[in-house]
Amino acid sequence: MTENRIPLAGVIGCPIAHSKSPQLHRHWLKTYGVDGHYMPMHVEPEDLESVVRMMPRMGFVGANVTIPHKQSIMEIADKVTDRAKLMGAANTLIFHEDGAIVADNTDGYGFITNLHEGAPDWDAKSGPATVFGAGGASRAVIASLIEAGVPEIRLTNRTRSRAKEVALTFGSKVTVVDWVQAGNVIEDASLVVNTTSLGMTGQRRLRVPLDGLHSGIVVTDLVYNPLKTELLQAAEEAGCTVVDGLGMLLHQAVPGFERWFGQRPEVNSAARDAIL
Ligand code: ATR
User: How far, in Å, is the centroid of ligand 1 from the Cα of 251?
Assistant: First the structure.
C-alpha cells in the first residue's frame, strides 16, 4: 500500500556531501508547501542496485543520480529513455507505482533552457558551435544543441580519441578539432561552450587562446564555481554575451521535481540563492 504516504526523493551519489540538490529541492518543497522530503544518500557502487530496488517500497517516488552512478544506473533501470541512451548517462529516476524504474537525463534540457534564458537572441541555426570537452556533460550538451538545430559542432578535447567516440555517436554534424587548435575554431562560432572541469576552483586553468572572441559570440561555461570563470571574464571583456553555468544546475532539476511532486518549480533568484 502506498496511499497517503509522504512522497520521498533524494540524490544518490558517492561522495554526496557536496551536492547542492538537497538545498534546491528543499527550497522548492518549502516554497510550494509540498508535503514531501528530499535527502542526500551516500550509496556505494556495490549497493546501488539493492538500494534503488528498495526505494519504491520505502515511499520514494524518484531520485537524482550523480557521480559515480550515472552510467551504471542505466543497467539497473527497467526502462531508459532514448535521450539518456544517446547521452550515455542518466541523472533522474522515476519510480512507477508498480515499482518499475525509469532512467532519464535532464542535463541537456537544463543546458539548453539556461542558454535560451541567458542569451535570448542566440539563434541556434545561425552558425557553428565550438564545444570544449568530450566527457559525460559534453554528450548532454551536444545532444541538446543538435536538437535545437545547430548546423555544425566543432568538438575539441585533450584526449582526441574520446572526442572521436562522441562524434561517432552523434554523426556528421560533429567534427573533431585537435585540442591544440581549439583557439582556431572560436572566431566564426556563434556559440562557445566549456564542458571540461578546467577553470573550476582547485582545478587547472583553461589555456585555450581566446583572442578570437568578439561580440557576435555567446559563451557559456558549465563550471559554476566560480560563477564568473576566467573564460566568462575574457568573453565579457570581448563583448560576448555570457551565460554562467549555475542556471543549468537549476533547470536540470525542474523536470524531476515536477514529476515527483506534481508542481512545476520556478527557476528564479530565490532558487539561485538557495544553492549559493
Ligand atoms: P563530466 O561528466 O563532468 O563531463 P568527465 O567525463 O570526467 O566529466 O570529463 C571531463 C572533461 O574535462 C573531459 O573532456 C576531460 O578531457 P579528457 O577526455 O582528455 O580527460 C576534460 N579535462 C579534465 N582535466 C583536463 C585537463 N587538465 N586538460 C584538458 N582537459 C581536461
Answer: 23
